[in-house]
Structures are given as C-alpha cells and as structure tokens.
Q: What sequence folds into this?
C-alpha cells in the first residue's frame, strides 16, 4: 500500500526539478533525492520513521495554507524530527503541491551549521 501511494505521488510532480529549484535554500536536497534518500508519499495521518531517508515529503491533498501550517506546528513539537511545510503560493521556492517535510532535527541542524546557515545568528 505504501509503495502504491509513493508511485502515485511521484508520477504527478517533477520532483527532480523541484529539488533542483530549491537548491539555494536547501543545498543538500538534490543530492539526497538523487541518492534515493527522500521518500515521497501521500499524507495519511501516520508519521513514518525516517529510516535511511534524509527526508520524507508528505503530499497533503485537499488542504489550504492555514490548515497546512497548523498541522505543521502540531507535528513540529517532537524533538526527533523537524517539520516544514510548503504549498504552491508560498514564495519563490514553493512546492508544486501542498507538502509537509519531515527531517531529522539533529542532522538538519548539523547541515545548516556546516553550511553557515546560523552564522548571522551566532556572530
């Protein structure tokens, strides 16, 4: 069933183009996608373990920005995972469909630190 959801989700969007386009704000996404370390699936209300993935992108159909942000805030209380959201009207790096992105909080912090993301914050 999860494989079927994954196949349906992947064929509707050019994910390679999306990850290439968001490189300025997420430089590691294209490499992770090419290595098969980003899973795409339809949101069912169930949160999956990342396993060997760098991220899981959940497509959230039939939603609006307000509901997506609210759901993301609710999920982003877990110390293990960081949750992000995007949808087609969300700026220059908007996703082609409404999505939630689940990533390992510690790995994401380390990636951001190593690329200088926090430099302005910590001086």
A:
């Amino acid at each position: 069933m999860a494989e079927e959801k994954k196949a349906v989700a992947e064929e509707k969007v050019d994910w390679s183009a999306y990850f290439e386009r968001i490189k300025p704000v997420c430089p590691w996404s294209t490499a992770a996608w090419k290595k098969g370390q980003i899973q795409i699936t339809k949101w069912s209300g169930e949160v999956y373990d990342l396993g060997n993935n760098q991220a899981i992108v959940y497509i959230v159909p039939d939603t609006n920005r307000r509901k997506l942000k609210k759901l993301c805030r609710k999920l982003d209380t877990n110390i293990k995972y960081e949750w992000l959201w995007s949808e087609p009207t969300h700026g220059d790096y908007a996703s082609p469909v409404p999505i939630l992105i689940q990533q390992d909080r510690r790995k994401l912090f380390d990636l951001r630190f190593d690329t200088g993301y926090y430099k302005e914050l910590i001086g």
Summary: Helices lie at 2-11, 15-21, 29-34, 65-75, 105-114, 119-122. The two ends are 48 Å apart (CA to CA). The chain is about 40% helix and 20% strand.
